[in-house]
């Protein structure tokens, strides 16, 4: 019996029926390539997904392998309650150094979803400690996605998101419209319909004003809404959200789990706007795809209020996962950040890598614009998107792309790529040709 046959009906895969199984088995992963087995044939393909955007350095990277082995030789885990260790401290020091000034405290979480959960808790404890427990709702953006746990589902798009089936079981929050689509031009300027932008600003300001007395914070993915549709919007929207937070005494939470650590062409996507949030979440690429880990960075101002124990609230932050601050994950994450920020000649390594990716993705995906089935082609940093005029025939497109030498995971009307930063020009050319050819074969 093949591995795929053994899997089907035994393992429940993400966003799939229990009997769906998998399309391929992975036999090996090295550099930017996966070896896939469909039960009859093995083939090596370029990984266009970077394992859901996390394996930015590729697979079996010698520096990250060495960091993991060295920590295994010391200890792989120890509880974080009442104890600390070198990998956690080093990782937190690196994160604070790389983050915008003012974000001085780090909470280490198990995953991206949990980091957003923790951020929401911090916001609520902050207001309760100030004697404002009635401030218990959040403003989020239509089209947003922040995770699969119950609190994070409640701030995802309530209608067009992936969690509409749970709408009656999640908290009821307030939503602003999805920001209008924008495009980053080659000269570094942003293009957006000014009338649409002005209308969005007016509407969002009105929504916040109408609910200000019950709002505790604002939650958003900066510049790029990922799982909500790979939707790019103008940095000015972040400036508006920061202004509204300040005007109405709200806390701004920016979810950089997908966008952070270089993916959009800035180390943090919030840098496109020069906005500093009160809380910032990072994950996915944090460990280079080796282990699950995320972090919440919090401003000193907010942490001081939470720690004050005001109005009968506990001074402690009420969250403590068993595997919080896992030493193995922290050691790999610190090394991953070291790789990203190492001298690349003209600046940190990530900058040249992502700039190269952006140029190669633009050139390689542009021919898709001529296909009759394609509505839009867009690129931002290391993100390339081919948007169709209708739903993707996912399995057919995936197989067509794999036959041409690349792995992708389409969804909705999108065939997109977010490959490892270390992809070279030839790798990206093979990846983009496979995407364009696969879309043309299946959708025309």
Mean pLDDT: 97
User: Would you count the extended β strands for me?
Assistant: 18
Q: What's the helical proportion of residues?
A: 25-40%
Largest sheet: 7 strands, mixed
The total of helices stands at: 13
Oligomeric state of the chains in view: single chain
How much of the sequence is in beta strands? 15-25%
Radius of gyration of CA atoms, rounded to a whole number: 22 Å
Straight-line distance between termini: 36 Å
How would you sum up this structure, described in words?
Pathway: Cofactor biosynthesis; biotin biosynthesis; 7,8-diaminononanoate from 8-amino-7-oxononanoate (SAM route): step 1/1. The protein is globular. By secondary structure, the protein is α/β, with parallel strands linked by helices. The chain has a seven-stranded mixed β-sheet, with helices on both faces. It has a four-stranded mixed β-sheet with strand order 1-2-3-17. 35% of the residues lie in helices and 18% in strands. It has 13 helices and 18 strands. α3 packs antiparallel against α10 (327-341), α4 (86-98) packs parallel to α10 (327-341) and α11 (349-365) packs parallel to α13 (425-443).
Give the structure's gist in a few sentences.
Helix content is 35%, strand content 18%. The protein has 444 residues and is an alpha/beta fold. Strand 7 and strand 8 form a beta hairpin.
């Amino acid at each position: 019996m093949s591995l795929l046959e053994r899997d089907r009906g035994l393992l429940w895969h993400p966003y799939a029926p229990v009997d769906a199984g998998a399309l391929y088995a992975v036999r090996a992963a090295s550099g930017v390539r996966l070896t896939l087995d469909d039960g009859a044939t093995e083939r090596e393909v370029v990984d266009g997904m970077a394992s859901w955007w996390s394996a930015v350095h590729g697979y079996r990277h010698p520096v990250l392998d060495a960091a993991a082995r060295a920590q295994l030789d010391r200890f792989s885990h120890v509880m974080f309650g009442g104890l600390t260790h070198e990998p956690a401290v080093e990782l937190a020091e690196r994160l604070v150094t790389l983050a915008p000034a003012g974000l001085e405290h780090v909470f280490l979480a198990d995953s991206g979803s949990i980091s957003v959960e923790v951020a929401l808790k911090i916001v609520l404890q902050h207001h309760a400690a100030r004697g404002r427990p009635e401030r218990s709702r959040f403003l989020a953006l239509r089209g947003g996605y922040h995770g699969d746990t119950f609190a994070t589902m409640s701030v995802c798009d309530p209608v067009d998101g992936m969690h509409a089936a749970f709408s009656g079981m999640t908290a009821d929050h307030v939503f602003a419209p999805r920001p209008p689509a924008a495009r980053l031009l080659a000269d570094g300027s942003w293009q957006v319909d000014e009338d649409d932008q002005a209308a969005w600003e007016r509407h969002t300001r009105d929504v916040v004003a109408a609910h200000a007395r019950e709002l505790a914070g604002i939650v958003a993915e900066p510049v790029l809404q990922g799982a909500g549709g790979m939707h790019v919007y103008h940095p000015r929207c972040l400036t508006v959200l920061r202004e509204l937070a300040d005007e109405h005494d709200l806390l701004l939470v920016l979810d950089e789990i997908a966008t952070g650590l270089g993916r959009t062409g800035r180390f943090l996507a919030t840098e496109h706007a020069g906005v500093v949030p009160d809380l910032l979440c990072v994950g996915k690429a944090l460990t280079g795809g080796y282990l699950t880990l995320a972090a919440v960075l919090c401003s000193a101002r907010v942490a001081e209020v939470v720690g004050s124990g005001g109005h009968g609230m506990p001074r402690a932050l009420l969250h403590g996962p068993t595997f919080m601050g896992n030493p193995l994950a922290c050691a790999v994450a610190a090394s991953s950040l070291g790789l990203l920020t190492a001298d690349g000649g003209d600046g940190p390594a990530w900058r040249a890598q992502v700039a190269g990716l952006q140029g190669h993705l633009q050139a390689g995906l542009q021919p898709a614009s001529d296909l009759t089935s394609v509505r839009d082609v867009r690129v931002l940093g290391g993100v390339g998107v081919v948007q169709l005029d209708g739903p993707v025939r996912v399995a057919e497109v995936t197989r067509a792309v794999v036959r041409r030498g690349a792995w992708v995971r389409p969804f909705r009307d999108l065939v997109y790529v977010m490959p490892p930063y270390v992809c070279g020009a030839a790798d990206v050319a093979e990846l983009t040709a496979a995407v364009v050819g696969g879309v043309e074969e299946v959708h025309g």
